[in-house]
Amino acid sequence: MLDSFLLGALLFVLAILLGLLRLSFGARIALIFGTIAILVGSVLSLATGSGPDTGQLWSLGTIPVTWHLQAAAAWLVFWGGLAALAAFLSPSRAKNPGIWMSGAGLALLGSLGVAGLQEGIAFLIAWEFLSFGGAIMLLADGLQQREKSGQSNLYMLALLEIGAVALLLCLLLLGARNTEFAAWAGSWATYGAAAFGIAVLFIIGFGAKLGILPFYEWYPGAYSSGSGASGALLSGIILNVAYFALGRAMLDWLPRSSATGTGILLVALGTITAILAILYAFQQEDWRRLLAFSTAENAGLAVVALGAASLFRADGLNMLSTLAWTVGLIHLGGHSLAKGSMMLSADRVASVRGDYNIAQSRVLALAPWTLGIGALLGAMSLAAMPPTAGFAGEWYLFQTVFQDFHLTSSAARVTLALGGAGLALTAAIALATMIKVFGLGLLGREENQHRITGRWPILALGLLVLGYAAALPWTLGFLAEDNWPAVPAALASMVKGPILIPLRFHFAFISPPLLLLMGLLLSLIPLAMLGWSHLRQGRKRVPVWGHGLRQIPANNAVTALAFSNALREFYSFVYRPSTNTRKSHSERNYFVRELHFDYSQAPVFGPWLFRPVVRFVQIMSDRLGLALQNGSLNAYLAYIGILLIIIFASVFYI
């Protein structure tokens, strides 16, 4: 198992070097085989349990830097790795494919580090690999104007560095004497009432990459500057390892005395993030922006599960805590596959249309059936429709929050109850969102005759979405060897043959494999009726309903705005929409030559949280620049001396 991951890491390093040399084909091959190596390693890790396999990489003085993969991390790496493999096998849309491969190799190398490193300093380095690897991929795609793409990536990096600073503070507070993670639980317990503050720092640090509010606002700009392949990695393995890191902090290191307050905070943040993200996703006209907000929504749902696990842990309900943590893993595993299929479908649409706009086209009619089935199954999963992976994950999540009556804290019970109501609202809007992106983005009347390639990875991910749910009753046992919450009996109580159960059979149950089988059998009825009708009457063509118009225009179409405008008006207190109409005239004002129509929604946090900080930093940099850049050589030498003293002092302190 360790050899497989070592081989994968070496191949990722090779991909980085080959990409920098602009040998994109060799870099792609290295990424493909490196991803296969980590998939094999993940399977071996899950099959044998977390076990004693620990590899020592190097030493920091007397502190060994070790790498060890827990079952939960192996689960998330495996499903995220499958989406990454599909992205590498798909045709590239990057303007600089070699540089893109280097960024992907750097991000995957960082993912391995975040998933398995057991020492704080090395972990922070791997965490930065994730950030800069993602930024390199998005910049190498070059699908936006350079200035706009650079601004989006700088905005992303700035918010991610806020998270990195929060994690650095956690390292200084918990790892001042020992940076090994094994000692952090004991160190955290010594802080007493201040332990909750450290938990907030961890939530800020990992939440910046997970897209927990207010950090989800970097998602649409960054995702829309790159390709769907980049989005598949960002929404898959990178998101998954960030969630694992947050779970390790909340369930393994956090003192139980602070778990109630932290759990309430996590449930609240996750629920509000999911609601706001899916509301904004519904209004998007760009595939990537819509799917980016959808990623933040699903990350919020997983954080709700983590918050529930923390609340159950605080009351000593270890079985329920294990259930909630496992539900988060199930949800993100299926999300990686579904989001990968939709992101890669967006690339195929853009290769035909020339852009990522959600507008009516004949892509689905002209594309081979493989693309249509893969995209349909991905959209169904993100809409939580049975019998897909998304349905199984969200069904489990609802059953988990319904266990709130076991909690002793009234605040915790109310929080989970309100979280369940928020999840119901999120699920309803997610269904409408996926109908929009699939119905408008792949169907319609526009003529296109382009050949569509790269459809097989989409089909594979779509079928895996079904297989994931159908095999779930038998694959959950692989998580029984996890180090924490370490209640194998809970995993055994979540299944009964082909049936999924939230610990008690009489509480609730479903069976994804039986749902899949019955769905296939029942589908034969309408297919037989269609076949009989076609043989008896032939194909009938009738006009579509044109909103009551007597004469239906040839180019009649439902736009993305028309589809989502009702909800835009209903939730105008959230969106704060603006509509601008500009006219250009020829000679006199009543001869209109062109009409320009623009509409937008205002972000929630940017105007009052991020922009004032940007202005403050600009003002301070201008004033400090006048003081620091004074042209005095003695002053410059003094600055260097002070900086060296600070560096030496920090080294001795650590």
UniProtKB/TrEMBL annotation:
> What topology in the membrane does the UniProt record assign?
Multi-pass membrane protein
Where in the cell is the protein located? Cell membrane; Membrane
List the InterPro entries hit by this protein, alphabetically: ComplexI-like_HydComp, ND/Mrp_TM
Q: What are the transmembrane regions?
A: 6-23, 30-47, 67-89, 98-115, 121-142, 154-176, 188-208, 229-251, 263-283, 290-312, 318-338, 363-385, 416-444, 456-476, 514-532, 633-653
Coiled-coil boundaries: none
- For whether the record's keyword set contains S-adenosyl-L-methionine, the answer is no
Annotated ranges, domain NADH:quinone oxidoreductase/Mrp antiporter transmembrane: 121-413
Keyword hit for Acetylation: no
Identify one Pfam family in the record: Proton_antipo_M
List keywords of the entry alphabetically.
Cell membrane, Membrane, Oxidoreductase, Transmembrane, Transmembrane helix
This protein's source sits in the domain of life called: Bacteria
Signal peptide (residue range): none
Name of the protein described by the UniProt record? Hydrogenase
